[in-house]
Recover the amino acids of this structure.
């Protein structure tokens, strides 16, 4: 699979169209969830611009800005937005309790990742046609941090009673496994790209 600025911008265009449809279609309690494709479109635009900044002298000075913009979506926004948007949809109080715990997990990992980004920074580089995002944090925290992130971004779809929510959860988890196996070094970039494409399923989930 070829990843590039054109791939990111093409995905962004498709997702922007899907996003406009989902936002217009969504009922009030689905409104936050319906914004997911549109937000992914914005994230893919930032990565498309990052691709261009590696070669375009006019954009090169904004490389760091595009890097942190992309990582803001990946590390801070999604672990908070996903569980909260599913929480808002759920009508059953027993399920809302578990979704609330997922939201707390997301808030905690988002705050932790923000702290590490702010303290130690991050950078981006290209390797074998993929963008590699490098963060500096203790290796011992990778496994528990990953677990908290997955609890926030995938588990809510298996808890929720919304139709086809489980399908979103299954495909998202499978894309995670595929990405970590085939694209380990470029995991952040590639998984976000796959997740962005999978957000088209929001159309199927909305009543």
């Amino acid at each position: 699979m070829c990843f590039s600025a054109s791939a990111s911008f093409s995905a962004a265009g498709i997702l922007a169209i899907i996003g406009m449809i989902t936002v217009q279609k969504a009922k009030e309690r689905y409104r936050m969830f319906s914004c997911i494709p549109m937000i992914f479109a914005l994230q893919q635009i930032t990565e498309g611009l990052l691709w261009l900044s590696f070669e375009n002298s006019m954009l090169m000075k904004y490389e760091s800005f595009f890097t942190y913009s992309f990582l803001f979506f990946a590390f801070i926004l999604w672990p908070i937005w996903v569980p909260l948007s599913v929480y808002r949809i759920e009508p059953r109080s027993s399920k809302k309790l578990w979704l609330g715990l997922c939201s707390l997990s997301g808030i905690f990992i988002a705050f932790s990742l923000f702290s590490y980004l702010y303290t130690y920074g991050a950078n981006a580089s290209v390797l074998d046609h993929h963008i590699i995002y490098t963060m500096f944090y203790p290796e011992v925290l990778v496994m528990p941090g990953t677990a908290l992130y997955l609890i926030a971004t995938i588990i809510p779809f298996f808890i929720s009673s919304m139709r086809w929510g489980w399908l979103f959860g299954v495909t998202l988890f499978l894309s995670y496994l595929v990405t970590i196996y085939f694209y380990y070094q470029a995991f952040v970039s590639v998984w976000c790209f796959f997740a962005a494409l999978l957000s088209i399923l929001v159309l199927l989930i909305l009543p």
Q: What stands out?
A: The CA atoms of residues 32 and 207 lie 14 Å apart.
